[in-house]
């Protein structure tokens, strides 16, 4: 599966680790940056990732120091369901109940093992549909067109 990946400087090291992990799992990773630890603005990268995910009906992983900023930015776009997750259980529920298409995580708040666990369970979990489908439809048309 093609996975879009982006971060700001605050989680650059963690992005590189997640990129390697995704590759090990057999996924095609599209690294949208940042490509250094030099200070940068997270909205730039979250916007770029949201546009790619929406246009290609794909999946993406966003990181920043806390994960909060990138999740706020990504969710401004129509068709994006970005979930800020702090645990593997939250990552699982974000897919099963909310059909999230962007996983947001805090590079400064989660360990390498926690990040890997969230990524793995998020990718392995299918959307349950059923009663959740109507709920998603209620908000899926909201947001700015990409």
Structure description:
With 146 residues, the protein is of the alpha/beta class. The chain has one domain: Sugar-phosphate isomerase, RpiB/LacA/LacB (Ribose 5-phosphate Isomerase B, Chain: A), CATH 3.40.1400. Helix content is 46%, strand content 16%. It has 6 helices and 5 strands. A 5-stranded parallel sheet has the order 2-1-3-5-4, sandwiched between helices. Strand 1, helix 1 (12-24) and strand 2 form a beta-alpha-beta unit. The longest helix is centred in the middle third of the chain and has 15 residues, at 42-56.
Short overview:
This protein has six helices and five strands; from the N terminus they run E-H-E-H-E-H-E-H-E-H-H. With 146 residues, the chain is of the alpha/beta class. It has a single domain (2-140), classed as Sugar-phosphate isomerase, RpiB/LacA/LacB (Ribose 5-phosphate Isomerase B, Chain: A), CATH 3.40.1400.10.
The CATH H-level homologous superfamily: Sugar-phosphate isomerase, RpiB/LacA/LacB
Main sheet specs? 5 strands, parallel
> What gap, in angstroms, lies between the N and C termini?
22 Å
User: What is the average per-residue confidence, as pLDDT, rounded to a whole number?
Assistant: 95
Helical proportion, percent range: 40-55%
**Would you list the SSEs in sequence order as H and E?**
EHEHEHEHEHH
List keywords for this structure.
single chain; 146 residues; Ribose 5-phosphate Isomerase B, Chain: A
Topology:
Layout: E1 2-7, H1 12-24, E2 28-31, H2 42-56, E3 59-64, H3 68-74, E4 82-84, H4 88-96, E5 102-106, H5 112-124, H6 131-140
Parallel strand pairs: 1-2, 1-3, 3-5, 4-5
Helix pairs in contact: 1-5, 2-3, 4-5
